[in-house]
Design a protein that fits this description.
The protein is α+β, with helices and mostly antiparallel strands. Helix content is 52%, strand content 12%. It has 8 helices and 6 strands; from the N terminus they run αβααββαβαααββα. It has helices at residues 4-11, 24-35, 37-45, 66-89, 101-108, 112-119, 128-141, 161-170, and strands at residues 17-18, 50-53, 57-61, 98-99, 145-149, 154-157. The protein has a 3-stranded antiparallel beta sheet. A 3-stranded antiparallel beta sheet has the order 4-6-5. Strand 5 (145-149) and strand 6 (154-157) form a beta hairpin. The longest helix has 24 residues, at 66-89. The relative contact order is 0.15.
């Protein structure tokens, strides 16, 4: 097996390795894992990590304690708000989609719904520019987006974004209606 350290260095930080990465190195890692998934999975299980496969991406998971699960649920709720915001910005926001921070900011002037959604994001930030900077930084930190063009600031959404969409789509909310 090749590049186990490089794979570990990315995935152990909670990041993803996506099929459509801008980076040729990350694309190579994706191909290596895809071709030898069972071997890599067995290798990382030896150190207590579970190599998981998604729709065009790979990531690590672990068995979690109850406290960690509660923290993850809180974080998941924040990501639901983020995905909701991004889908209001553009309903086709997903893997392969490209955008710039200025594209999002332009939408604020004529999209009241987007303005309302932005109020719930990064409440410690007051200006929309600060909120968008923080949003893109978070998306980039988890490899949900990658900077495609430094000159014009274009970002591309990676296949790892499917993880968040799939997680949200798996949620089922059961409403209890009491009969009067």
């Amino acid at each position: 097996m090749q590049k186990t350290k490089e794979i570990y260095d990315i995935l152990s930080k909670g990041k993803f390795i996506s099929q459509n990465s801008v980076s040729s190195e990350v694309s190579l890692l994706y191909d290596l894992i895809e071709e030898n998934f069972s071997e890599y999975r067995a290798y990382y299980e030896g150190i207590g990590l579970v190599l998981e496969s998604g729709n065009g991406y790979f990531y690590f998971s672990r068995n979690e304690t109850r406290i960690n699960i509660e923290n993850k649920l809180k974080q998941c709720m924040e990501w639901i708000d983020i995905v909701d915001f991004l889908k209001v910005y553009n309903s086709t926001f997903g893997p392969g989609f490209t955008f710039t921070k200025s594209n999002i900011l332009e939408q604020f002037s004529n999209n009241v719904e987007l303005q309302g959604k932005a109020k719930d994001l990064y409440t410690d930030k007051k200006k929309n520019e600060e909120k968008i900077d923080e949003l893109v930084k978070d998306l980039e930190r988890l490899n949900f987006v990658e900077l495609e063009n430094e000159i014009d600031g274009t970002y591309r959404v990676t296949m790892a974004f499917n993880y968040m969409e799939e997680l949200i789509n798996c949620l089922t909310i059961i409403e209890n209606e009491e009969e009067i």
